[in-house]
Amino acid sequence: NAGVTQTPKFRVLKTGQSMTLLCAQDMNHEYMYWYRQDPGMGLRLIHYSVGEGTTAKGEVPDGYNVSRLKKQNFLLGLESAAPSQTSVYFCASKYGISNQPQHFGDGTRLSIL
Amino acid sequence: RKEVEQDPGPFNVPEGATVAFNCTYSNSASQSFFWYRQDCRKEPKLLMSVYSSGNEDGRFTAQLNRASQYISLLIRDSKLSDSATYLCVVNGAGGYNKLIFGAGTRLAVHP
Question: Coil, helix or strand for B97?
Fold first, then answer.
């Protein structure tokens, strides 16, 4: 059972480069989320989606864009990477409106030099 | 005030000890409550949901006090494998769509 799969697992970028992180889930979940986690801080929500073709801003959306063209995939884009975006990025998904927990991918470690 | 607050710890306890973690939340309209476990450099994993009447799963007991906006997690007979960071999670404003994660409480169980 794959669950939530994130690619890549690790990446090093130079300031100003762009990249896309991919999240794929095979549980037919309606909701998907992108978080970042920094040392000593809780998970912070970047963007989320409540269904195919929809996206919404979370707590820290600046510098990121997202797309949900297919229900199973949620892409996170960095158009012009900055050192402040060095972090561990987690994707999560859950069933629709219900008292259900989120299921997480194993993370992407991103360093911006 | 943070939406979800936890004592960061670390809690250093011997094997077999009982340890309790507390968490407070600010949104009185919150309806969903969870405890997640996160091992070093790994993804958060659901430990247990927290129900209004309190619930138990083996050595783990979760309690919810809505009046005080307070959640607790009790671990009995601690094992070395319980060493991890425990995250208190509450749904935020706007319903079930978004969860707010506490920064976590670190537990270290030693022989």
Answer: helix
Identify the CA nearest to B19 among candidates B86, B91, B68.
B86
Q: 3-state class of A83 per DSSP?
A: helix
- Residue A99: band (very low, low, confident or very high) from pLDDT cuts 50, 70, 90: confident
**C-alpha–C-alpha distance, residues B71 and A13, integer Å:** 40
Q: What are the structure tokens assigned to A102, written together? A: 């989120």
Q: Tell me what the pLDDT averaged over chain A comes to.
A: 93
Please tell me if residue B96 touches chain A, with a CB cutoff of 8 Å. Answer: yes
A101 in reach of chain B (CB within 8 A): yes
Instruction: Give which of A31, A102, A106, A110 to mutate to test B binding, by max B Cβ within 10 Å.
Output: A102
Contacts 24+ apart (CB under 8 A), B67-70: B68/B24, B69/B24, B69/B25, B69/B26, B69/B28, B69/B30, B70/B22, B70/B23, B70/B24, B70/B25
Contacts of B45 in chain A (CB under 8 A): 104
